[in-house]
Structure formats: structure tokens, C-alpha cells
Amino acid sequence: MIRHRLFRNGFSAPLLPLWLALAAITVLLSVYGANSTDPAWEVEAISWVQSASPDALLQIAKFMTVIGRSPISTVIPAVAIVAMWVWGQRHLSIFLAAVALARVLSGVVKQLVDRPRPSASVVDVTYQLGGPSFPSGHVLGAALFYGFLIYCAELSISNKAVRRLVQGSLATVILLMGYSRVELGAHWPTDVLGGYAIALLVLSAMIWLHRRWTGANQKERPESATVTP
Fold it and tell me: What is the pTM of this model?
């Protein structure tokens, strides 16, 4: 079965330019965040999202907050890692664990940038959260974990319709997590962008390493590792 060349060729195209670009974006956003206080355009962006969102999306945003916080943000990855291991996908299980643990990068960058969160005096803040604002830990964690699950689905689900349904659902969770941070006034839009940039940088590196480690770019997925719903 022919798959998308990104997965089929194991990231054979040079990734260094992508990694440098993502690193540069992260640095620029970090510098911007460290030197900006209640930026007018971001205040307006948050206000627009909050005024334009229906009540149903507000409830979804609150749900995204719940699944992105401990203990659920720890339980879901733990269950997925164990299930992957029991299922026989041990290489993927190990890398999934590494990806989940990479969320600690959020705390490291937060302390370095030390950007204040949006204040209730300028936007509607649904949840008063502590700690620095940049990057969004919810977004970083979700993009890393659910992003790697998208890759796992590409390798493990042979039925194309089911595979795309699973991947589309996972991508929706990642996008909704970013939306929720702005809708709830928990983060600035650039915090969300920073979370996505860091996650994509780490995620692409992890997938590249996995392809090199398993040699998956040299041969097709073994039949024993496929699932045909």
C-alpha cells in the first residue's frame, strides 16, 4: 500500500531547514513574549475569538482544558503507552513515552521567557491559572502526544477510511486545544503558536529517529503489526 511520502520515505527529504526554521520561530516568539505586556493586537484577537464563539464551543474549550491538565493529561498517555506495548508495538510505545515526557520542555521555556498571562483587566479570563504564559503547555503536550499518535495510526491501521478517521479526530483535538487557550483567556495567541512550533520541532525529530531506529523507511510495515478493523 502506498502511503503519503512523508511517512513512506521516512523523512528522507532534508529536515535541517525545517528544524532551523522552527527553532528560529520559537526564539523569535520567545523574545517577543519576554518583551511584550498586554499587546494590543493580541488583546483584540482574544476579544474577537471570545465574542464570536458560540456557547457550544465554550463548553468544548472547557473540556479541552480538563483533558489537558493533570491527572487526565497523565492518565491518557500512560494508558496509550501500556496498550501499545501490550499490542506488540514496543518501539512505538517507547517513543510515545519519550514524546509524552518531552512536555517538560514547556516548563523550562516558561521559566526562561517568564511572560505574564493575559489579565482579567483586558480580556475575559475564564480560569485564573498560575505560572508564566509562554508557551502553552496544553498545546505543546497535546500536539506532541496526539501528533505522535497520528504517526502511530499511519503505521498501524491498514484500513484507509478508519486510519483517516482516527487521524482526523486526533488532529481536531490538537487544533481545539489551541483554540481553547485563547477562548478561555488562558494564553496569548503567540503562546499557542509557540506551543505548536516547539511541538512540531520535537515531533519531527522523534519520528525521524524512530524511522532510523526501526529501519521502517527500508521496508513496508510487517503484517503482524497491522490492524484491519
Answer: 0.85
